[in-house]
Amino acid sequence: MTATPPVNLASQLDSHFRGQKRMALGKLVDDLRYGTTIPCGTLVVMASGDRKLRAKILEKDVSHKGFSVPLPLNKLAADFKITPRYLLWLFAHPFVGKHLLFHATGSVFLRVPKRVLHELPIPVPKDATRLVQAKEVVFKRENDEFGAQLGAFYDDYVLNVCNERYHTAIILAGAMAEMIIYQSLIDQGVVRKLLAEDRNLGLGKMLTYLKLLKLDQAAPFTHLCELQTKRNAAVHAGLLAGSKARFGKSDLKCFDHIIRHYGI
To answer: Using one digit for the tens of pLDDT, what is the confidence trace for 43-54?
Structure first.
């Protein structure tokens, strides 16, 4: 039976990532030859015997035996703030999965040809696009504690989403948004000490700072405000008491917009 062609990939990207620069995945990854080592932290697209495709981030170094397509990101990807977690988030969009399945080969062990993966258009986070257009020179710390902590939160977030624990996922999304906006304010010249000494600092107040500094127009402000409201409803006892409200997957759409803008 011939597979039904998915909805046009370009039109779906236009719908979900309007106005974002795109780059072919092949330009963002390095080639790894068979027999070499795939480093821990690399995203791989794996074949399995149950006629399914799996994408996962490796938790340890493994030998490249040709059963998967590794996607080790290069310096260009780092410059555009494209990380393995960002790619995994992108692959989780149903229209991307349908596109990859349509082009997969094999009856038992499904495999996506490397060419198909390398041709996949990757939307660049909007925040990274502005940095490149500004022609700034960005020096990245070798020990990126902020990125490591954000990644740990995101891994917990994905685990809770996969297990339909959306209440906890909302709380984690709010925590990540706070981290991102805090770092964004510092990157825009706000003195770290002023933020550190503000005992009432939270996402709501940081959003106020964004408006006062007129940085809200360059941020997904509406979606940040929506996430703040939902996170407050998930953690504040006064809002929880007697409430029958339940969170669902659709409540996380505002966080998707934040990831589109800043990456993850």
So the answer is: 999 876 666 778
